Automatic annotation (TrEMBL):
Pfam families: Ribul_P_3_epim
Upper lineage: Bacteria, Pseudomonadati, Bacteroidota, Cytophagia, Cytophagales
Entry GO CC: cytoplasm
Enzyme class, first EC level, given as a word: isomerase
Family in the record: Belongs to the ribulose-phosphate 3-epimerase family.
Active site: D35 (proton acceptor), D175 (proton donor)
SUPFAM superfamilies per record: Ribulose-phoshate binding barrel
Encoding gene (name): rpe
Entry's transmembrane regions: none
Binding site for a divalent metal cation: H33, D35, H66, D175
Name used for this protein in its record: Ribulose-phosphate 3-epimerase
Keyword set, alphabetical order: Carbohydrate metabolism, Cobalt, Isomerase, Manganese, Metal-binding, Zinc
Protein source organism: Pontibacter indicus
Amino acid sequence: MKPIIAPSLLASDFANLQSEVEMLNESQADWLHIDIMDGRFVPNISFGFPVLQAIQRHAKKPLDVHLMIVEPELYIEQFREAGAEIISVHLEACNHLHRTIQQIKATGAKAGIAINPHTSVQLLDDVIADVDLVCIMSVNPGFGGQKFIENTYRKIEALKNLIIARNSNALIEIDGGVNQQNAPLLLEKGADALVAGSFVFNSADPLQTIANLKNQA
Ligand code: DX5
Ligand code: ZN
């Protein structure tokens, strides 16, 4: 099975967002990964609804929206209306995670949970059967271009075991520091979807870089 490739627009040229999105439309990317940061859950601010709506107007692929915000439950419906196909909230940002997952599903979007590098996958035990995706952060969220954390491989294995044990359909997405070097082992360990920001957009030929990630053995 080929991996799902989700380039992160965080690393794109915001002054040429339309052409960046059109490039992704023509590429072998499966999803467009959208990083929303509020300056509270993470020490950085990215962009909000007007930018997301502008992306949606041009995107021909599902928008995979990664919410790095506190109290995400206040904005789920608005993100859905702005075009989110997948909505991932951080476990660490939710006091009532089970309720928030149901809230996402009620909008018709797919529900994802993102976990920080310090968060054990075992904390997902009681919700894993209810979610469509788990995003394992392989860097501390907040910035693109950071170094991949090696402990991620172990977390993928543990999560895969949990998914099987609980009969879950959740996809495993890896986010942060993904490149052509670590991608093969991530897939071997059980990753289904790879997010890549700087590796794609800082490369000389993003179309080719996406194709390489998609078609590796
Ligand atoms: C980090 C974001 C990532 C980021 C990945 O907080 O969640 O999606 O854009 O960027 P790279 O691939 O450059 O690590
Ligand atoms: Zn992300």
